[in-house]
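dumping this here before i forget
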Amino acid sequence: MATGINNASFTERQLVTFLLGEDEFGTDIMDVKEIIRVPDITRVPNAPVYVEGACNLRGNILPIIDGRTWFNLERKNRDENSRVLVIDVDGKATGVIVDKVSEVMRVNIADIEAPPEIIRNVDLDYLNGVVKLENGNRLVMLLDVVKALSVNNAQKEEIKEQNESLQKNSAILGSSNNESIDEEQLVSFLLGKEEYAIGIMKVKEIIRTPQIVKVPNCEEYIEGIVSIRNNLLPIINLRTCFGMEHLEVNDHTRILVADMGSFTAGIMVDKVLEVLRVPSSIIQSPPRFSTQSEDQLKGVAKMDQGKRMILMLEPSKLISADVISGISGTDGIYKEDSDGKSIGKQLIDEEQLVTFKIDSVEYGVKIANVQEINRMTEVTKIPRAPYCIEGIVNLRGNVIPALNLRKLFNLPEKSITDATRIIIIDHNGKRTGIVVDSVSEVLRFEKTLIEAPPDTLSNGVDSDYVEGVGKLNDGKRMILILDISKILTLC
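structure:
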């Protein structure tokens, strides 16, 4: 029996978990001498701001630290749930006030994921990892409170080396879990109040609505044609195609340039929402209303336990190639420039960006670095993290650091709105979320329109973060193209 217990100790850790604000933390039970209610505390003059004071614990003086202040959180009045964790630091007891003690639990080492690299690059070596429980729906930040309270830097470095092997193993485990997930990556959009989506591999680009030329004697749902880079692109009004009422073009209207099978066309939608990944397990076959509707619908994604339904369209089934061929008299629409240069070759001379806004300034990042775009989700704060790190988010059970560009650019804070998005960046195989005010669009433009950034930029943006400035519409629209590698390194 004793052998079994010893073996379990190598695969498990026993933790005391506690709350600071809405975030849950855990620390090794061996570091916690006892847990007590908040006693009467005597203030200590000229003490650091995080030192609450001292108390008498069975005849011994116990220094008390406010956990919220120590981890740069807003102070809070004590209540009946507040507790003091008595920690043994180098043979001396120190008390840490927490909002609430949750439980004592055992966790498998396999459920501990290494902290994101962008956080490990700074002096946060007391953050040992993130415990993923309940299929990743519950995250517990694993703290080494002894390290957090210790001022012996040499001791910190020694303990840090001891934890590196655990962090590497956790990172490898997390990577293998990511690869095993069967997912669909979609571009979602609105038609009225209904949410639809098309597979991202079918979407070539997303553009604002240009000047559309009406075509006589064609199907009602053909809005017309536009010229894009000397190519004729037919525009399909999806509202009309689905028998919905007409809606005037506005600032939200977008056109998805989509692969329709044997041709390319623009699909006009009310508003593009986001790029998201959906597990195949939550996609159901479409209901059978008619043969046509069943063909057009690829499936129905049931998100948020069925509260959010996304109708997945199959572009090749929306309209026939004969209809498009009748408009132009040729099958070569949007496939070739007037000078014979193919789109594939043309893309070599173009830049494709995901553009977004912070305040009134428009920025862009190369689409090759963008894994997905999500609505803003709940952020778990990281204690004493770098000023520009908002915290970590749970992305389908994976821990992703969230970087706030407003803070990085020294801009005033702004409340989260319905437009706030988090763009998941994949750089050198490591994912980081960047929080932005809103996402504008996915666009392509010629590289000749990009200029080197000036030495100094306004709006608090250091020119080191900018690799170029895109000048569109004869310079009336300026896009600062960010160098993701430098942003993730300098933060």
